[in-house]
Amino acid sequence: MKFDKRKDISPKYLLLTCTIICIGLLFASYFAMDKVAAVKNVAIKVITPIQNGINQIGLWTDSKLENLKKIEALTAENDSLKQEIAEYKDDITALQNRQNELIELQSLYQLDEQYPDYNKTAANVFAKDASSWFSTFYIDKGTNNGLFEGANVMCDSGLAGIITECHKDYSKVRAIIDDSSNVSARIMPSNALCTVEGNLAQYDNGYLLAKDIDKDANVSVGDKVVTSTISDRYHPGLVIGYVSDISYDTNNLTMTAYITPAVNFDNISNVLIITDEKQSIVDK
């Protein structure tokens, strides 16, 4: 059988022994104070700097740990603020888009009010050709929405173009600035007849050309140019633009006017399409 010494020593005896030893050390240090002083001084000189150094290291470590905690807290707060800023930016973008949509809808509403005699429907532009401008573009409505080839298309403050292809759910529009476009028009208030020709190179300067104006016509800068009643493709009275300049042709029989378009062909997103065929209006 093994002998376990720990079970033979009572805890109260151990406590008594430690107490006696401590009391003895106290008496020894009191009566031998002079002898211990030198050792104490040496200990103080050696241990105190070490203790101070340890304390400084501890304080430095604590400060660094505290700084690290602050950095971690600031980093977390910064990430949270970045997330909030990103969300705010998304909200601002959404609000700006809604505001732009509202402005466009208000513009279409005002345009609709200008021509109360025509039935119209709105459509969105979803694509355009490779040109820098919207000389040819596509809208998201077609025959299913009552559209047809030859339907007049408007936006901003006037005539944008005409539908040249009409499918079930989309249509292709040729703008009046396109090189192949010709619009029979008249200049108000003199009622001078002219032909507004599409010209992309000319539109690069911001103008359309109104040609074949009688040289004796009373045409002035600022006059309104509208579609003519003699046009076989466009409803009468649709605003094309305004006269910006006039020049006499070399034949001395006609004039050419530079027209500022009523539509900004740099960017078109929403349009109004007249759903009445030209003949039905003429017959009214």
Textual characterization of the structure:
The structure is a single chain. By secondary structure, this protein is of the alpha+beta class. It has four helices and twelve strands, in the order ααβββββββαβββββα. The chain folds into two domains: 107 residues; 163 residues, Rod shape-determining protein MreC, domain 2 (Thrombin, subunit H). Helix content is 39%, strand content 27%. It has a six-stranded antiparallel barrel with strand order 1-2-5-4-3-12. A six-stranded antiparallel barrel has the order 6-7-8-11-10-9.
Fold blueprint:
Elements: H1 11-31, H2 33-114, E1 120-128, E2 136-139, E3 152-155, E4 158-166, E5 171-175, E6 182-188, E7 192-197, H3 200-203, E8 208-214, E9 224-227, E10 239-248, E11 254-261, E12 270-274, H4 278-282
Antiparallel strand pairs: 1-2, 1-12, 2-5, 3-4, 3-12, 4-5, 6-7, 6-9, 7-8, 8-11, 9-10, 10-11
CATH topology name of the largest domain, in short, is Thrombin, subunit H
In which range does the helix fraction lie?
25-40%
Name of the level-1 CATH class of the largest domain? Mainly Beta
Tell me the domain tally. Answer: 2
Structure classification: alpha+beta
CATH homologous superfamily grouping of the largest domain: Rod shape-determining protein MreC, domain 2
Largest sheet: 6 strands, antiparallel, barrel
Which range does the strand content fall in? 25-35%
The end-to-end span amounts to: 128 Å
In total, the number of strands is 12
General shape: rod-shaped
Number of distinct helices: 4
Based on the structure given, which CATH architecture of the largest domain is correct?
Beta Barrel
Reading the helices and strands in chain order gives: HHEEEEEEEHEEEEEH
Radius of gyration: 46 Å
Low-confidence stretches: 280-284
The strand line-up of the biggest sheet is 1-2-5-4-3-12
> Mean of residue pLDDT?
84
